[in-house]
Every structure is written in structure tokens, then in C-alpha cells.
Amino acid sequence: MSTVLASAPAAPVAPPPRDRRFSLPILLLVIAGGLVALAAVRAITGANDLTSHGAVRAALQSAVPIGLAGLGGLWAERAGVVNIGLEGQMIFGTWFGAWAGFHWGPWAGVLAAVAGGALGGLLHALATVTFGVDHIISGVAITILAGGATRYLSQLAFQGLPGGGVTQSPPVPELPRLSVPGASVLDRVERAHWFLASDLAGILRGALTDVSTLTIVAALLVPLTFWVLWRTAFGLRLRSVGENPHAAESLGVNVYRYKYYGVVISGALAGLGGAFLSMVASSIYRESQTGGRGYIGLAAMIFGNWRPGGLASGALLFGYTDALQLRGGSQSVHALLLFLAFVLAAVGLWQVLRGRRTVGAVAIGAAVLVGLWYATTDAIPAEFVQAAPHITTLVVLALASQRLRMPAADGQRYRRGG
Amino acid sequence: MSAPWVRLLPRLLAPVGALLIAAAISSIALLISNQDPATAFSSMIEYGTRPESLVSILNRSIDLYIGGVAVAIGFRMNLFNIGVDGQYRLASLAAASLGAAPFLQWLPGVLRILVIVLIAMVVGAFWAGVAALLKVTRGVSEVISTIMLNFIGGQLVAYLLTTNHLGVQAKGSNDVATPLLPKDSWISGIPLIPDARSEVNGFIVVAVGVGVAYWFVLGRTRFGFDLRASGQNATSAVASGVNARRMVLYAMLLSGAVAGLVGMSQLLGERHAHTTSVGGLGFTAIGIALLGRNSPVGIALAALLWAFLDRSALILDLNEIPKEIVTIMQGTTVLAVVVAYELAERISRRGQQRRAGATVSEPDPRQPSEVPA
């Protein structure tokens, strides 16, 4: 069976569609342009927190659980199973991470969280693949179950421990944090508040110092996922199951087994995201700590068009707005309005230059409105900032849903021989 | 012959079997934590059937039932309205503030109740309509959009329910709520349960009405037929002249309007204001719609069961049994019911196929060889 598909990658699948996606130079150009614009906004508004190392560090910390959940969603959906139970699997991850972390140290916690999430994934696979239950229904049921089960388990395992109770665990030991030696030199550059130089220094310092090992693991999982799913025979088979299970079956792929692989790995990644929440982001398990990050992860995955790189940038974007708001930066979020106005104006001009007048006009009009909003107010209510990732998701979906392409057999039930 | 029974049996067995499985799993969980399942269950049943408990169960199941119906309307057409939570929170806030607003005070009490309920339905439908529009015009999956709208709605409510906007702070309390509704638009209770000191919330009448309307509209009207047809086979529904986009829009608006009613029993019959504690029933409503298999009676039974578990859990703590066991029961029941129905359907389908195969092949198996002539 292993030889059946091994030769396939060389066949028509090989040339990836390049026409619509950014090529690398253009991508770098866009990133550089964004950086310059952000630096300009910081210089104009004086909202130094926009590119401070603290904000970048917090953004990474917010982005990791979202990104891990998104990766989880990617693995399941590439195998054709919608995993809306990510939230539930993440809840398992937070609980098992804290529980094992408290008893046997942080790395045991990470392993237990991965196992707990994988167990949730296994349950989802059992319901959807073996029993053919609707994917959304099973996912919702698992999320309900996870909330109840962890609460019951907390009652048994945390009640009576120092600091523990029905809704929270005792403090959990931290995972080691790493810094690139010498990166603290950037400190002086950052504090000088030079245009662009200080911004770059802040970003580098945030990304290179005091980084949790789990953040590094998460960052490595993104290219690893790409490599496994797009560069190995295993990945090709898994994706073929999500695109056209009947064809895959006819070529000798065990569709059920690959769906199981995808969904269990998906749960494991969500569990890892949960471990990050209870062991790195805060050193304690708390009930409803996930706060819907499983869903945001799913949104980041859709935002990223079911690709690892795209979902990582989506997670970073959501993480960044989240971080600014967490740092009480209604000033910096207010400054972001100016940035948004810049971006919208740039997009509008670009569209007009390409001959799409209406789209461009709408974008420029929106830029003017956002600019006016910036000019006439001093701050944005914290509630709006908290809703920013969700609003972004809706806007992105509304604008880009025509260009997104999910796996062809995503969310469909598959019966062998049916 | 016994054919209808053969077909019905797996369908009846499914919920019973699922309940047994859920009870078994909860028993195992109890045994692991060194508790006796028998005493736990019997004390739950004893406590849950006291008159006071029955009132509280009925009151709680009002909201659960309406929420379940709201979700079920979507389910009947393969739409997932996961946004019931956001819809009814916004609806309750809008209805509570407008109902207490000075410019509506000239209305007589009964009319104002009607207006309040209408506002709630319109706001609920509006919030669901956002998701419907996104789906119809831009092809955005309602699963994601309603989840996002839940969060956005929650933040919007948090923003509006501050003393700067719609909220007022009660004296000597930290809680912010909308102003109390005038007394003439409170709904009085119904002394439904004899021997109970409290009364059943009067809004239960509306809940029953919602159930009847759901049964009638979906089962007995052209619109309901179109809706179910689009849910079961969208392609063939479109082929027979159903406007699929319009059906999505209508179904979602209807679901949202019903969802808007979820908070009304609390607003009109109990708290008389929108407080910060409103919310959180959306996911439960999905579980209840699943348990009840989208049937008006089934959802009612599911809501009552859920409310019974919620209420009877209170006694467990007194017996030093963690009451959280109940949430496990609820979760496993949903999962087991879903799986059990899937299996039952599979078995009955196989039985049908076998019977169909038998009737086709039995009469004279040699006939094909005689056909060529």
C-alpha cells in the first residue's frame, strides 16, 4: 500500500498554484511596508507600546494557543473532519497540563495535556469517523462534556490542595524560558525611540528574550506541519482523504485510519495549546480559561486558507490585538486605528491602480471613516478591543470567503463503500 | 404485520439505551471517586420530585425549551445556529432597556409586555440575520460567524450595560443592571404545582405556544415543508423550485427570533431587569435540541431532563458527592444519544434494505433469464 501513492507527488498535483498567492519578494515587501507604517504610526501618535518588547512578547504569548488550536484544526480538516471540539480538547489540555504539572513537574504536564487533548480527539474521531455522527454535533457535544468532566475532576483532584478548588488548580511550576545571549543590547536602541530602528529593536527583543520553550516548540510545529502534510507520502495520503476519500480509498489508502490520525493529532495540538494557557500564560488552571480560543484558532485557520503559514499569521494578528488590549493599552489600540486607516488606504489605492474602482473606493472610504474615528476620539472602549479578533475574523471571512478554498470533502461523512 | 414496530423499535431503544449508557458512565465516575451510585441517584430522584423542585425544574426548562426550539429550527434545514447565546443576550438587554424607557410608559401593561417580547424577537432575529446575510451573500459558514457574533454580542452587551449607557447601579450593590420594568408589565406566576410555596413562571404559556407553533409551521405548512426539504436535500429542493437562499435567510431569522425569547421568562416573570448574569444557555440549547431530536415533544422532554439534573444536583453536595457529576451526565447523554440515533438509523436502514431486497428478489429469482425474449 505504501508504494501506491509514493509516486503520485510527481504527477499532476505537483505544481502548486502560484497565480493568486504572494511570491516571496512581494510578501517581504508587504511585511516591510507594514513595519514602516507601524513605526510611523508609533512616531506620530507616541504610543510607544505598539512596538515595545513587552507588547511583542505578550502578542507571542497570546498567539501561541490560538496558533496551536489553528494547527489542530488544520490537521483535522485536511483529513476532512471539521473539529469544532477544539475548544473542548483545549479545555482537557489546560486541566491535564495543570494536574500533571503540579504533581510531576512541567514537562509531565505538557505530555499529559497532549495526551488529554488527543483523548478528546479520539472521542471526536470515534463519533465522526466510526459512528458517522455529524462533525459539528460531535464537536459541540465534546465541548460540553469537557467543561463538565474537568469540573468534576477538579473537584476530585484540586479540592483541598493549597490554592486549589473546584474551579482552579494549585500553582503549577513554570517551563524554562530562554533568551538569545546578547539580545539585551537591543534595550538601549529600543529606549531611544528612533524611527524604525527602535521599533525593530523592540520587536526583536520581544521575540528573542525570555521566550518560553513551549513557544519555541509551537513555532517549530508550523514548518513541521507544512513539511509533514505537503512533503511526505503520509501527508499526501492524509490530504487525499480530505479532498476525495473515495478516490483515496480506490488507491488503497485506509481512509478511516488517516482520518483517525488527523483528528487525534488535531486534539493533541489543541491540548498542547491548552497546556500553554495553564502553564505558560498563567501558572494555574482556571475554569473557562480557554475563553473560546479554540474557535478563534479555527477562525485563524480559515483566515489562513487552510495553510500553516497563513494560520500562523492569522494567529499573530489576533494575538497582537489581544496583547495590546491585555496590556491596558487603549491608547495603543487607538493608535492602531491610524494604522488601520493607512492599510485600508494602501489597499484602496492598490485596487484602484489595478482597475477595480468600486472595491478601491470602498476601501478608501473606509480608510477615511476610520481616520475620522481616530481623529475625533481619544480612546477605544476596552470591550470593542476585546471583540477585535472576532470582528476581524468576520470581516476577513466576508471579504475573502470567495478566495478561500477548504479541502473538498471537508465536513462530509464518509462511509466505506458507500 | 409487525412492520411498523420493527421500524420504531430501534428509534425507541436509542434514547433509552443512551440514557442507560450515560448513567453507567456516571456510575463509573462515581465509583472511581468512592461514592455509591445507588444512593446518589436515589437521593437525586427523591429531591428532584419535591414540589419546590418541580417548580424550579419547570421554570428552568422554559428557557431551555425555547432555546432548544430555536436551535432545532436551524437544524431542520442543516443550519447550525450556535449563536443563540449572543442573540438572546442582546435581545434581553434591548427589551429590558426599552421596556423600562420613559417614552414607552404611556402604553398599558399588557401592550407593553407585547412590545417587549416583540423587541426581543426582532433583536434576536437581527443578530442571527447578520450571520444569515453573511452566509447568503458571501458564503460564510454560519458555524464560524455565529460563534464570532456570540463574542461580539457579549462584548457589546458588556459595553452597553455600564452606568454610562443603559445600566444603573442598585443602591448598596456592585451589580449593574437595567432599570426595573414598571410593575404592570410583570408576568404573574401560575400555581401549577400543588403544595409548592412558589409559582411556575407565567411565561411557560409562551413556551408551550412556541412548541405548538414550531410543530404546526414545520409539519403542517408549505413553508415548513420547503424548509425541511432544503435541509434534507438542498439540490432536489432547488430543483423543485425552492429558493434556497431565501430559505436560509428565513430559517435563520426565525431561529434568531425564537432565540430572542429565551431571556424573557426571567425578564418578565422573575428579575424584571437585564442583569449581568443573563447568558450562557446557548450551548446547552444545542445539547437539548440534539437530545430531543428536533421534535417539539422530544425537546420538551430533553429540557425537563436537563433541568431535573441541574436541580437535583443540589442535593448531592449535602451528601458530600461532587455535584459536578451532573455535568458529566449531561455531556455523556448528549454524546450517547447522538451516537445511538446514528446507529439506530443505520440498523433500521439496513433492515429496510434487507426487506426491500427480499421483496425484489423473492418472487421468482429465475425471471431475468426469461426476460430476453
From TrEMBL, chain A:
Signal peptide: none
Provenance organism: Planosporangium flavigriseum
Pfam family membership, one: BPD_transp_2
TM spans (from-to): 22-44, 56-75, 81-100, 107-129, 135-153, 211-230, 260-282, 332-352, 359-375, 387-406
Stated name of the protein: ABC transporter permease
GO CC annotations on file: plasma membrane
Subcellular location: Cell membrane
Keywords: Cell membrane, Membrane, Transmembrane, Transmembrane helix
Membrane topology type: Multi-pass membrane protein
GO molecular function: transmembrane transporter activity
UniProt superkingdom: Bacteria
From TrEMBL, chain B:
The keyword Transferase appears for this protein: no
Keywords, ordered alphabetically: Cell membrane, Membrane, Transmembrane, Transmembrane helix
Keyword check for Cytoplasm: no
Membrane spanning stretches: 12-33, 53-75, 87-107, 113-134, 143-161, 200-218, 248-268
Compartments it resides in: Cell membrane
Record membrane topology: Multi-pass membrane protein
Disordered as annotated region, ranges: 352-373
Main location (coarse class): membrane
GO molecular function: transmembrane transporter activity
Pfam families linked to this entry: BPD_transp_2 (PF02653)
Signal peptide: none
InterPro entries noted in UniProt: ABC_transp_permease
Superkingdom in the source lineage: Bacteria
Gene Ontology CC, one term: plasma membrane
This protein's name: ABC transporter permease
Organism: Planosporangium flavigriseum
